[in-house]
């Protein structure tokens, strides 16, 4: 079945309006799934320090926990402070950071990084 130009335009308008509607009602998100910091449609990578105490002179251990999104359909993981502290075997937290990465909105991750003893 060959589409004429009116049908192509109509299909395009329907596609764009559907995408905008889904985006506006937060049914889809182009960029970072968490809405934290700047979002890049093609690429984004950044780290944000959220809290920090006076750092001791001893070297700190690092713990990291992430949530990852594949495409628009599958998200998994646990980026809680507790899971990051458990991953680094940390009992006393001195610094908390968030790291986010996004590639073409097809893969993105949000990680919580904790530093402490």
Q: How are the strands of the biggest sheet laid out side by side?
A: 1-4-5-2-3
Sequence of secondary-structure elements: HEEEHEE
Q: Pick out the low-confidence regions.
A: none
- Chain oligomer state: single chain
Helical content class: 10-25%
**What is the number of helical segments per DSSP (H or I, 4+ residues)?**
2
Our Rg estimate from Cα atoms comes to: 20 Å
Largest sheet at a glance? 5 strands, antiparallel
Through-space gap between termini: 67 Å
Note the overall shape. rod-shaped
- Judged by helices, strands and strand pairing, the structural class is alpha+beta
Q: What is the number of E strands?
A: 5
Beta-strand percent range = 35-45%
Query: What is the average of the pLDDT values?
Result: 80
Structure summarized in a few sentences:
By secondary structure, the chain is of the alpha+beta class. It is 23% helix and 38% strand. A hairpin with a 3-residue loop joins β4 and β5.
Overview of this protein structure:
It contains 2 helices and 5 strands; from the N terminus they run H-E-E-E-H-E-E. With 117 residues, it is of the alpha+beta class. It has a 5-stranded antiparallel beta sheet. The longest helix is centred in the first third of the chain and has 20 residues. The chain is rod-shaped, with a radius of gyration of 20 Å. The mean pLDDT is 80.
Keywords:
alpha+beta, 2 helices, 117 residues, 5-stranded antiparallel β-sheet
Helices, strands, pairings?
Elements: H1 5-24, E1 43-52, E2 61-70, E3 74-77, H2 81-87, E4 93-103, E5 107-116
Antiparallel strand pairs: 1-4, 2-3, 2-5, 4-5
């Amino acid at each position: 079945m060959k589409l004429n130009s009116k049908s192509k335009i109509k299909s395009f308008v329907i596609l764009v309006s559907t995408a905008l509607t889904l985006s506006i009602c937060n049914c889809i998100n182009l960029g970072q799934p968490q809405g934290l910091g700047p979002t890049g449609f093609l690429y984004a990578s950044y780290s944000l320090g959220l809290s920090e105490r006076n750092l001791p002179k001893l070297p700190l251990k690092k713990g990291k926990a992430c949530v990852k999104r594949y495409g628009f359909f599958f998200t998994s993981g646990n980026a809680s402070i507790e899971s990051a502290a458990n991953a680094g075997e940390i009992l006393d937290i001195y610094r908390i950071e968030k790291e986010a990465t996004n590639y073409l909105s097809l893969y993105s991750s949000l990680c919580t990084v904790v530093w402490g003893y």
